[in-house]
Amino acid sequence: MTSPSWPAVLRDGDVVLRPIKARDQRAWREVNRRNRDWLRPWEATIPPAAPGAPVAQRPTYRQMVRHLRAEANAGRMLPFVIEYQGRLVGQLTVAGISWGSMCSGHIGYWVDQAVAGRGVVPTAVALVVDHCFGTVGLHRIEVCIRPENAPSRRVVEKLGFREEGTRPRFLHIDGGWRDHLVFALTVEEVPGGLLRRWHQARSGNNSPTTGPATRPE
Fold first, then answer.
1. What DSSP designation does 44 have?
2. CB crowding 17-46: b at 16 or more within 10 Å, else e
């Protein structure tokens, strides 16, 4: 897929989203390994295989990147890493992109505990939502979060996502099928852009703010 929507680099101040690359392996592994205990309760796991079925294995980093890039090239995914002050600190992926009468996708993310609470993830989510609505052409974005994941819930609450309900036993997380809360936004709900609304919320005023810089890679 070669278009203004992908590949793309999204930037707001110290926060940058850019496509994940094979050469990110060392930095990605270092951050992921250092945050094992922080991330484990919220990470997807592979359910037990049915009797007689082959046992699925977690992909290697390079296998993961090849899959993400193939999905991005097919228009079904936007796989970014998150950089903060020039350092890789996490990952954000828009997945499940559907067209036709739906025009939607869902966002998943993780971030280094060392930068949690600095507005990195809300800024990253706001950047990618504006990109999805304004450039990609999606109509709806979802974020599904375990009820126990208070930090992630705070992200969507700060950004004004609408809570829609619970999906029981929705995803296999941390070794079991877990309920998830569904949060969503449609393009009509953020006519001025989500990043602008986020800046206004942080500053406590309604003055205009500079929008994101987006460029093809």
1. B
2. bbbbeeebeeebeebbeebeebbeebeeee
Residue 5 has pLDDT above 90, yes or no: no
Query: Residue 144: which H helix or E strand, with range?
Result: strand 140-145
List pLDDT tens digits, range 104-143.
999 999 999 999 999 999 999 999 999 999 999 999 999 9
CB 105 within 8 A of CB 97: yes
Q: How far apart are CA 141 and CA 59, in angstroms?
A: 27
The total of other beta-carbon atoms located within 10 Å of residue 116's CB is 15
3-state secondary structure 65-107: HHHHHHHHHCCCCEEEEEEECCEEEEEEEEEEEECCCCCEEEE
Domain architecture of the chain: domains with CATH? 8-216 (3.40.630.30)
pTM of the complete model: 0.91
